[in-house]
TrEMBL record:
Keywords: FAD, Flavoprotein, Magnesium, Metal-binding, Transferase. Its EC number is 2.7.1.180. The keyword NAD does not apply. Its cofactor is Mg(2+). This is FAD:protein FMN transferase. It comes from Nonomuraea typhae. One of its GO terms (molecular function) is transferase activity. Pfam families: ApbE. It catalyses: L-threonyl-[protein] + FAD = FMN-L-threonyl-[protein] + AMP + H(+).
Amino acid sequence: MTFPGSARTETVLNTSVNVDIRTALPQRELIPMIDNAFAWLRWVERTFDPSDPDSQLGRFNSGRTIEQVPELVEVIHRCNELAETTDGWFDARIGGVLDVSGYIKGWALERLSRALCSAGAVDHRITAGADVRVRGSAVPGRPWRVGIRDPRSGSVRRMVFANDLAIATSGKARVVDPRTGEPQRGLNSVTVIGPDLAVADGLATAIYAMGPVRGRRFAMDLAAAEPYQVMIVTRGGRSVITPGFAAYGVPAELAG
């Protein structure tokens, strides 16, 4: 099936990123739009690379002079907010070094999604590994259909249908318990859905770090008070969802 719009996939932010625009705009507008999208993501990669001592984040960690980058200030502020919200389970300063890897990808994609909307590309899907941001329609009158995959087996566990939703899954990348510094192995994956991919990404990381008991309790409290819903997959493969999660889709075997 041929869709209006344009799509491109590149490797950036240490993963494969796909930008799929379905708004029927002329190619003379779409091509520069997608060029700018990946230019933005590469800028984020260069600026926030914790392994590069000459990135702005690397210079910040070493106490050297940094450029006046308002995005760096914003990211640090948002990470501090998430640390407070999660009682320290989201921690971007493990070992005294600032590493925003658990937040920056979701933040970059959320900013990109908003920029695409402002430019007129109101129907789009951005996918980066297990993080997805959808807006508008896949085709006129139909929402986007997103399969939430088990990061270990690759199988689709749940199918989500949405016109405006952020979906972040944690589990494949190494997540440590910020209180012990040890890798967390108590869960298979955590998926958080809601209105902002940056927040969803950070919350998924935090809940995964909490482990099965504390994570489930936090997820239920979160879903009762905030516009975010959670699916936790245990090591045994059992799915636990917060009450509002079911409104966004069905188990994969029922999706058809």
